[in-house]
Amino acid sequence: MATQDSTARGQAETRAARAQMQAEMAAQAWSDLASAERSRDDNMARLKALRLAREAEEAETAAAAKAAKAAPKSRAKKKA
Questions:
Q1: pLDDT surpassing 90 at residue 53
Q2: Cβ neighbours around 5 below 10 Å, total
Q3: What is the rounded distance in angstroms from the CA atom of residue 74 to the CA atom of residue 80?
Q4: Torsion angle of alpha carbons 7, 13, 14, 17, nearest 10°?
Q5: What mean pLDDT, rounded, does the chain reach?
Q6: What 3-state DSSP class applies to 51?
């Protein structure tokens, strides 16, 4: 009978240790997932800022080109 008690106790300890290990692994997995999401969000924000800066520069260049094209050209007319 003592053998059955010690076997049952050993199995319970094994199950408890396994459950503890699984809980720790799950916590680590959630932490890794959160870290990956933060990295993705940071990268998306960085890329968006670069895109907006490039678009602003292109718009400024286009506006300057349009203004230069629309500006009246001063040509002296020659009278013959």
A1: yes
A2: 9
A3: 19
A4: 180
A5: 91
A6: helix
